[in-house]
Amino acid sequence: xxESAQAFGIDIGGSGIKGxxxxxxxxxxxxxxxxxxxxxxxxxDAVAAVVKEILDHYEVEDGxxxxxxxxxxxxxxxxxxxxxxxxxxxxGVDINRLLTEKTGREVHVVNDADAAGLAEAQxxxxxxxxxxxxxTTLGTGIGTALIMNGTLVPNTELGHLILDGKDAExxxxxxARSRKELSWKKWGGRLTKYYRLLEHYFSPDIFxxxxxxxxxxxxxxxxxxxxxxxxxxTLLNAAGIVGAAYFASTQMKR
Length: 254
What we know:
It is a single chain. By secondary structure, the chain is of the alpha/beta class. It contains 8 helices and 13 strands. The strands form 3 sheets. Strands 1, 2, 3, 4, 5 and 6 form a 6-stranded mixed sheet that branches.
């Protein structure tokens, strides 16, 4: 593998599986990433075969910290209980065991929103912040990650808090803005209600806002009226891979 890399990260999504060696000192790719389309039948065996193909491509040796960002809550030693964007045959699978067996290397899996949040806390927009960081991704839904003094509180699903009598992400996600054809100002009003709810329950020290729409943050940030500092994510599409690699490095030390 690339000499400047200390770990390897893979990000599994509904349309593509991406991987790259990661320089943990800098929080960036040590080489250009490789992307392979997610198999049309995204079963555990089919996805594991792509993960192995990526690791083989970079000649990643067993013993290298290998992290995988995955679109579902992940509890080590326990089977997956929910799957939204991949084949339903993932439900009931111990994903850490499966990927470790199929790739011939020890693999550490983390929820994709948690991976992105870790990357932003360690290397990105929230680097150096003490206390509680809440990272959110605004897209089809609302992904969340809680990092307390650098330690991940895994598998939060704060996009599903009840807001105005409905699932918060159905009310405030970027998809709701598009579906309702909301102006930036009106969407900012909805986001104000959502982030105030998070303030009420968690009293965070900073919010990091990711997702594709974060590149247009100047259009809606001015309409979000909250007390907590809010910053746009900086790692963008690299966050899942970098965060997964960093997560794996913390697990290898245990």
